[in-house]
Design brief:
Layout: H1 2-14, E1 22-27, E2 33-39, E3 52-56, H2 80-85, E4 89-93, H3 113-125, E5 132-134, E6 137-138, E7 140-145, H4 147-158, E8 162-168, H5 174-179, H6 186-198, H7 205-216, H8 222-229, E9 244-249, H9 257-269, E10 274-279, H10 295-309, E11 320-323, E12 329-332, E13 343-352, H11 374-377, E14 388-394, E15 399-403, E16 406-428, E17 433-434, E18 440-447, E19 451-456, E20 460-464, E21 469-475, E22 489-499
Parallel strand pairs: 3-4, 3-7, 7-8, 8-9, 9-10, 10-11
Antiparallel strand pairs: 1-2, 2-4, 5-6, 11-12, 13-22, 14-21, 15-20, 16-17, 16-18, 16-19, 16-21, 16-22
Helix pairs in contact: 3-4, 6-7
Length: about 500
């Protein structure tokens, strides 16, 4: 027994308390208590200071307490273990309203969750393992996905002590991501609300009101639009100075590629170092070949080494990386890509406004990559419909399809309500799958008169070979958007379908 006690004393001297992981409570600006977890870098020697990475959790989750967490190839988030082995302290936390933290969930609001991050940075500045740029200003970066991705963009805009960020599967605007073209993304809205209720989250009342609306109408009301417009980064992205690596999923149907492109375009216009990486994962499921999943961790660590550690010899690779439906990787210096000759076709047809024969759910094989469990993921993936107006493009030769397809519609129709929606998706004939699992709502006016309407669809990435066929489907219903069809039909007298190509 005496020998065991002696060994314990010796061990305590060799491993000083300052190098141990620890939990704490941080008081935010309004007195809200935030539960935090601090993990020093792996093997950190006593007295040494290194940069710190704040890693926020996804919606409904508490801060990660596993210091060896692996990188998620389906979710796109670099793991705590990889960060700590690379020489970073890591801090995780329960966002306000979730887990052990107090307060009310305000969905990454700049006035609340954004200011919470500033309180966390103040805490980091007081830790003996944290490298400081100056007193009160630690060398700090951020990582994390989804809810933990959105908060990075908000926090980096309002607190310029943040030196580098790696937001994964995040958003620019909740107005567009939850209600594109003023159409409620009901499948996702109800699922997110249910996930928060399941963990007894304390929610802003407007969140419940919006969920109720999603169950009863496809239209966003003015109050919901104003609430979601004020949550997340939006125009604040223009104030970010921290070098930013944007990681987004090609099959993410909640926060689509459009959200990352908007952030990228704003950052580049303001001369902020920025890179964009697309991968087959995110809020959804990868139903095609995922390709090189190791690049998520590789690119994340390279970005932090260059801009957080300050290693000028570390390269961060091309400014834009993407992959096609076959898992093949491509790269270019920047977005947008030089435009090639678009592929186009015309068609027509009549669509019955009924729930039967719509898009989704998709069949998900076991082990498919994504941030969602396979049993649930199919509900949020578009799938080939049987009740559809179809327009097919046949490629004359090889081409890289990267960007937003476009549709131009001339139509007449009648329905119980003149304000209606149809949805558009693109099916790859080679696989029978919808490109990127993406579907886009298109507003129509069904008053018996002729109308013409043109809109871009959600962005996709795919390769075409000679004789490849891609079919635009106009459908009445999906498991992602509940368009609430109530009878009637639409006669599309002309449909122009265009796929963008890139010169690579």
């Amino acid at each position: 027994m005496r020998r065991l006690l002696l060994a314990a004393v010796v061990l305590s001297l060799l491993v000083p308390a300052s190098a141990l992981a620890r939990d704490a409570t941080v008081q935010s600006f309004d007195g809200t208590s935030l539960v935090v977890h601090f993990f020093p870098a792996a093997g950190l020697k006593h007295g040494r200071r290194v940069p710190t990475v704040l890693v926020g959790p996804g919606w409904g989750q508490s801060g990660d307490t596993n210091p060896g967490r692996r990188t998620s190839p389906g979710g796109g988030v670099v793991g705590l273990g990889a960060l700590r082995r690379a020489g970073y302290n890591v801090l995780t936390w329960d966002p306000r309203g979730f887990g052990g933290s107090g307060g009310t969930v305000e969905i990454d609001s700049p006035q609340f969750e954004g200011r919470d991050v500033s309180a966390l940075i103040d805490f980091v500045a007081r830790q003996p393992e944290a490298r400081l740029d100056k007193k009160g200003d630690p060398r700090v970066g951020m990582a994390g996905g989804s809810y933990g991705g959105g908060i990075q963009l908000v926090a980096a805009a309002i607190d310029h002590r943040i030196d580098a960020i790696v937001p994964d599967i995040a958003w620019n605007s909740l107005e567009t991501s939850l209600g594109l073209n003023q159409t409620v993304k009901s499948g996702w809205g109800l699922a997110l609300y249910g996930a928060a209720l399941a963990v007894n989250a304390r929610l802003d009342p407007e969140i419940g009101t919006s969920a109720t609306q999603a169950a009863t109408s496809f239209l966003q009301d003015a109050a919901s639009v104003a609430f979601f417009r004020s949550r997340g980064p939006g125009p604040l992205v223009a104030k970010i100075k921290a070098p930013t690596l944007l990681i987004q999923g090609t099959v993410d149907t909640l926060f689509t590629l459009r959200e990352a492109v908007t952030n990228y375009t704003t950052l580049r216009a303001h001369h902020v170092p920025v890179k964009m990486l697309w991968f087959c994962g995110g809020h959804g499921v990868c139903l095609t070949k995922p390709g090189d999943t190791a690049r998520i961790q590789r690119d994340s660590l390279a970005w932090l080494a260059r801009y957080l550690q300050g290693s000028k010899k570390t390269g961060t690779g091309p400014g834009f990386e993407w992959l096609d439906q076959n898992g093949r990787s491509f790269s270019a210096p920047r977005w947008p890509l030089p435009a090639g000759k678009p592929l186009a076709a015309d068609g027509s047809g009549t669509l019955a406004l009924q729930s039967a024969g719509g898009s989704g759910p998709a069949v998900v094989p076991p082990g498919a990559l994504g941030a969602l469990p396979p049993a649930l993921a199919g509900q949020f993936a578009a799938a080939k419909a049987t009740n559809a107006v179809n327009v097919t493009i046949r490629a004359a030769g090889p081409a890289e399809i990267v960007g937003a397809p476009r549709v131009s519609l001339t139509y007449t129709g009648s329905a119980p309500s003149s304000d209606a929606r149809v949805l558009a998706q693109v099916v790859d004939a080679a696989t029978g799958k919808v490109l990127g699992n993406q579907i886009t709502p298109l507003p129509l006016t069904l008053d018996g008169r002729s109308h013409t309407h043109a809109l871009p669809l959600e962005l996709v990435a795919a390769s075409a070979r000679r004789d490849s066929r891609f079919t635009l489907q106009l459908v009445a219903q999906s498991t992602i958007y509940n368009a609430h069809p109530s009878g009637g039909s639409v006669d599309f007298t002309r449909v122009r379908f265009t796929l963008p190509t890139a010169r690579t």
